[in-house]
Amino acid sequence: MQAPVDRAWLNGRVFTGTRFAEAFLVEGGEVREVGSDDVIRRAKGAGADVVDLRGRLVIPGLTDLHMHLTDTVLEREGVDLRGARSREEFTARVKGGLARVGEGPLVGVGWDASLWPDGREPTREELDRMSADRPIILFQVSMHAAVLNSAALEASGIDEGSADPPGGAYGRTPEGRLNGILYDAAMARLETSAASVEWVRNHRAAYARLFVEAAAMGLTTLCPVLASPAEIRTVSELATEPLPVRIRFYLDLRALEAVSALPPPPSDGRWRVTGVKAITDGAFGTRTAWLDAPYTDRPDTAGFPIWTDGDLAEGLAAAAELGLTPALHAIGDRALARVLSMLDHVRVSGTPRIEHASLTPPSLWPALERQRPQLVVEPHFVETDRWLVTRLGPERARWTYAFRTLTDHGFALGGASDSPVEPLDPWTGIRAAVERVPRSDFGRLTASERLAPIEALQLYTRNSGPILGEPTLGCIAAGGPADFVVTSVSSLDAALAAGRFGIGETWLGGRRSFPTVAA
Ligand SMILES: [Zn+2]
Prior knowledge:
This protein has 3 domains: about 5-55 and about 480-515, Roll (Urease, subunit C, domain 1), CATH 2.30.40; about 70-195, CATH 3.10.310.70; about 275-465, Metal-dependent hydrolases (TIM Barrel, Alpha-Beta Barrel). α17 (about 425-435) packs across α19. It has 21 helices and 24 strands. A hairpin with a 5-residue loop joins β13 (about 170) and β14. By secondary structure, the protein is an alpha/beta fold. Zinc ion (ZN) binds near residues 66, 68, 225 and 418.
């Protein structure tokens, strides 16, 4: 493969991740220098191309620190159940999907029974009436629950005798029969079933399309979390050609023993396994996030932990041996307190990440400041979880998604989508961090947690590299990779307003990744 062309980018408004400059020089796929037009003109070699940016805004390539790769592909390839407002609409979409796909398993994503008039979760019997022989697997919008028909239960090795796994449950009828719903850790069976591995392999082209889609949004690095060995193998096969994004995997901690059988990562850094991910509690949507005190709208439950302390400590120690940094999902305040106190006495590799850290009341600050973990947040949850005041009550809801408070306490928050739970498009997250849904009760309650546009952009740029242990990622800085976005606008405000539609070009390692040119 030919080396990328050296280029001097002049006469722009270049946000480096920390400050603004006029121009920068790219040589050998790296940023050589950043500064004024004069400095860059003098620094460039005689053979370098010169690009006149004509005042346009350039920003570092964006990083999505937490997304679910296979689930995102599933969402695009499977049946979209998001926003279905009744059981009838849900049923019609599933039937439509069965007819469209024609044969084999059907996977769908995004149902939410709380939007339906009767509020009852769908059941195995209802799905059996739609297909008795093709496996049907339909994920709830939070991805913390799924409903399966009888054929899918059988294909996953789940039967009436299956005991609930730690941190998960098989839903049952009042008579004690499986009702087809799997909660949290019970869904682990789905990832490792032979049918899922087959599905991943069959959809390699869809993974490649997703990477192109990401580059078009200005993304240059994706971090698939809870990555399965099948997914890593598929990306390694695609990466024999240059990929339009860098991939940093966080392997599912439950699959740690598979690490030795994975293909070796390439030396040019197009993909690697950076860490491991473990889910330590559920989500607010399914009232499974683990809270200090019960849910306001369901006083009989406070959620629950996933993983016992002993199993989690053992898993983290094994990951540390392999040099893999942990990324620990903790949404409820109790779950976060547990993880922080565990980190007091468990040795880990690198600075551990806490995923979501959604509820951070003042009682948790001493432990947060003692541990100083990396915090990775999904600003678009603010937009989606407008019902949080009902779930948690106003006193607690006040301390959800407390981006301003955490930033003021010196945490350089990382930004992520949690796709497909929320849109992959990072601009929707950047806007949500700035706006905080002003017209909702929840938005008003937490309006003081707004970030400035530049801080919101930093969640996805300069804050991301240190979290990945690659300090030069996420900035336009001398010695770092030439990963950047040329927008079609001239100010940050205009870029925020235009979102993904303001992306002119995305460059990765000095090569254009969007729009792609035919070879
Ligand atoms: Zn997630």
